[in-house]
Write a structure and sequence with these properties.
Blueprint: H1 6-58, E1 65-69, E2 75-79, E3 86-94, E4 100-103, E5 116-121, E6 124-129, H2 130-133, H3 143-152, E7 160-166, E8 172-178, E9 187-191, H4 194-201, E10 204-207, E11 212-216, E12 223-227, E13 231-232, E14 238-242, E15 253-259, H5 261-286, H6 304-317, E16 331-333, E17 339-341, H7 343-352, H8 356-361, H9 370-382, H10 388-447
Antiparallel strand pairs: 1-15, 2-14, 3-11, 3-15, 4-8, 4-10, 5-6, 5-9, 7-8, 11-12, 13-14, 16-17
Length: 448
Amino acid sequence: MTDFNPAQMASQMATYYVQGAKAQLETQSKQSKGRSDALNSLQKSLQDFRTALGTLSSKKNVMAMAATLSQDGLATASASGKAQPGRYSLFVEKVATAHQISFVPPDSLAVATGESLMVAVGSSSFSVSLKEADTDGVVGLSAAEIARAVNQHKDNAGKVSAMVATDNAGKSTLVLSAGQTGAANTITLTTGNAALDAAVKAAAPLTAAQDAVVWMGAEGSGVKLTQASNTFTGIDGITLNLARAQKSGDVPLVLNVARSDTDTAANVQGFVDGYNALLKNINSLTVAGSAEKGQSAGAFASDSSVRALRERLNTMIRQDFGGVKLAELGINATRDGSLTLDKTKLGKLLDSKPAALDSFFIGASGSEGLLKAASNYADQWLNSGKGILSQRKASEQRISLDIGKRQERIDKDYDQAYQRYLSQYSQLQQLQTQMAKTMEMLNSNLGA
């Protein structure tokens, strides 16, 4: 009988003892991980699709409009989908400005406890403690300390900013600027300190608090529109960013608003791309696989709910929304279910039925469009509490926990089997050693 290692033999036999259960568990663990990874992949694809829907929905109109101005440098213009096409005359009489004032506070201003500087901007105000503002250890309050106290005050929140300008002679001027433009945002300063009060009352206006004024039509005879901001939204669907005013007697600007087929097609293409990306991932997760082609089956190849997801989306996009169907928009389905956009056909539809695009995607007459319907269905899967994906993930987590417990049992079975086999093979080794010694003694005696 040859020598052997009891520990090695015990390990081999214990491994053989649990290998069936272990192989089955490894297969189930691999399948569970595959499903978990597939659920994460599906979740990301659905989230990306819902984001694409939300981006398009946030524009309020899928059909895009473009706005241009006849002169450069005075303003820039942009249009939302609800802007009405046409040519409009505009005259920019004033641009909005922020109030700015300056004053020279006394050098080394002596302040007493309880004295303050009240800063008001329009209807909002806050009070700066002059005594607490004196923090540099030098006797007297400086312009820089006042500016710092104003800027850092907890109730300021961007209402006003303060800075110090120092000339060649060393004289410091305190400059305060309102955080927002418009006539209503006027800066007012009051203080109980006599020396500072005199300086405040002598404050010089640098820039007036002024609203923007735009005339729809000619200066003085058109419709006067006033707004506090230079981002001018007084014209429905149009945003003007005013840069400078025109001079009295200048020729009015011409605002041209027209449909932008390029941007409209880009909006529709965004939906098409989002849908195709989701469909491609679902197809890869549900592929049946082929041994002849060496193609593995997808994690959800036999999953009816994921296949139902694909079928529901496929049916939904082919529904009638607002009296319009997908094919009328120039969106066609290929053999694999993905979508393509015919921009020429889309343009022709918009020429004859300008409202068709928004009726389909956004909805009409109080009914929801495709964007809302598809987003609501995606939410059934993505809802963090009761969504299908949350439930499926929770199920996979339970399976994973069960696999972990079964692995612990297999490890325990292995350890028990190992100890049992180790004891048996150790006894066998001892018996072998005893037999070898007996044979050696017999041979020795016979030889003698």
